[in-house]
Amino acid sequence: MFEEGENLKKQFGPDKVFDFSLGNPNVEPPRQLKELLCQLAADDIPNKHGYMPNAGLAETRAAVAAYQSEPRGVSLADRHIIMTCGAGGGLNVILKALLDPGEEVIILAPYFVEYHFYVDNAGGSTIPVNTREDFSLDLAAIDAAITEKTKIVLLNSPNNPTGKVYDAQSLNGLAKLLRDKSRTLGKEIYIVSDEPYTDIVYDGIKAPSIMAAYDNSIVASSYSKSLSLPGERIGYLAINPASDNAEMIINAAILCNRILGFVNAPALMQRAVAKLQGVQVAVGEYQRKRDLLCNGLAALGYRFNKPEGAFYLFPRSPIADDVSFVNALLQENIITVPGSGFGGPGFFRIAYCVSDETIVNSLDGFGKVMKKFS
Q1: Which of the four, 112, 143, 183, 355, has the lowest number of CB atoms within 10 Å?
Q2: How far is residue 112's CA from residue 350's CA, in Å, rounded to a whole number?
Q3: Euclidean distance between CA atoms 248 and 289, whole angstroms
Q4: Residues 6+ apart with CB under 8 A from 353
Q5: Which domains does the chain have, with CATH numbers?
Q6: What is the distance between the alpha carbons of residues 224 and 197, in angstroms, rounded to a whole number?
Q7: Among positive and negative, which fits the CA dihedral 112, 117, 119, 121?
Q8: β-pair type (337-338, 235-239)
Q9: CA 334, CA 76: separation in Å to the nearest integer?
């Protein structure tokens, strides 16, 4: 999709192509980050660009643990934090650490496209389970999907592609369900929570802590969205101190960080984020873009659940064949992604982390295609 967008821009001009395909943040990183990077580049720091322990720099792990303890509702120490090559790298590390071949990972549809591949990389099997019509958790469906092979329930909140934030009541209900199932099956079932969008939330909503709700939980997060650093590949794993076999999981994840080829997270970025805990991009900019897009599409007859977080909108396609609808939008130089790839057929995803001009100038094309099919 990225290459398709670049090709169309070369053909028609950047201002004539409306690329909503990728979650590539367009809000600039905070000023403090730019200043800090200049300072780090100039400072004479021993081994500034060298190897470090595979879990990451001690001072970075300590800084992340100290800052994340309060919002996570647990007391994290530096040993509970492993710095990773983004949340994607972190997910691959923890899946490799936890899964035996053939074990199952429940993923909640709609889901991030690459989860299937991440689980497959670790020799596991994905079991998709649908969420409710408003994209909230369907605990009965999750209950029915759990088998003796279930090892992990993989969460993503705020969600890509829907923007849904799972509320505390739902997470507490899921935690009770998994505690009961774990006792019945005589084994641990883990929650792995993919949380790169935790700080990108709107309308006073906060993303509840899964660690506070469930002991056997691991969080994968990153600074790709909160600091607009997706290309720098810097994130972390946080292992719940109360988790069964916590020390074994930590040791396994540290080993996997190396043997999967990541070795360690980027050194310069580790030094930067250690000093930027609590700093984030201007989230209000994304909320404004959300409202601009939602108001425009609602006036054209599109139906959707308003996102509570992240920077994606997941509207219904006016026809059942979401691929055909996305192709029709492409004829108007509007690039979106079919919902089928996210386990959400009949929908399509719009990444609204784009310029205001892209949103406003695309509405005429959105309107033309809606009229064609309605």
Answers
A1: 183
A2: 13
A3: 44
A4: 23, 24, 25, 26, 27, 286, 289, 311
A5: 2-27+282-373 (3.90.1150.10), 34-274 (3.40.640.10)
A6: 9
A7: negative
A8: unpaired
A9: 45
CB 152 within 8 A of CB 159: no
Can you tell me the distance from the alpha carbon of 284 to that of 325, in angstroms, rounded to the nearest whole number? Answer: 31
Whether the Cβ atoms of residue 321 and residue 310 lie closer than 8 Å to each other? no
Q: What is the pLDDT of residues 163-182, one digit of tens each?
A: 999 999 999 999 999 999 99
Name 17's bridge partners.
none
As a whole number of Å, the end-to-end CA separation of the chain is 27
Residue with tokens 């994130």: 235
Q: Compute the residue count for the chain.
A: 374
Kindly indicate the confidence band of residue 16, based on its pLDDT and cuts at 50, 70 and 90: confident
SS (H, E, C) the chain: CHHHHHHHHHHHCHHHCEECCCCCCCCCCCHHHHHHHHHHHHCCCCCCCCCCCCCCCHHHHHHHHHHHHHHHCCCCCHHHEEEECHHHHHHHHHHHHHCCCCCEEEEEECCCCCHHHHHHHCCCEEEEEECCCCCCCCHHHHHHHCCCCEEEEEEECCCCCCCCCCCHHHHHHHHHHHHHHHHHHCCCCEEEEECCCCCCECCCCCCCCHHHHCCCEEEEEECCCCCCCHHHCCEEEEECCCCCCHHHHHHHHHHHHHHCCCCCCCHHHHHHHHCCCCCCCCHHHHHHHHHHHHHHHHHCCCCCCCCCECCEECCECCCCCHHHHHHHHHCCCEECEEHHHHCCCCEEEEECCCCHHHHHHHHHHHHHHHHHHC
User: Is 91 within 8 Å of 247 (Cβ atoms)?
Assistant: no
Tokens of 308: 């509570």
What is the distance between the alpha carbons of residues 367 and 18, in angstroms, rounded to a whole number?
A: 14
Model pLDDT for residues 31-58, shown as the tens digit of each residue: 999 999 999 999 999 999 999 999 999 9
Residue written as tokens 């670049």? 6
19: which 2 tokens?
A: 């690329």
pLDDT at 303: 98
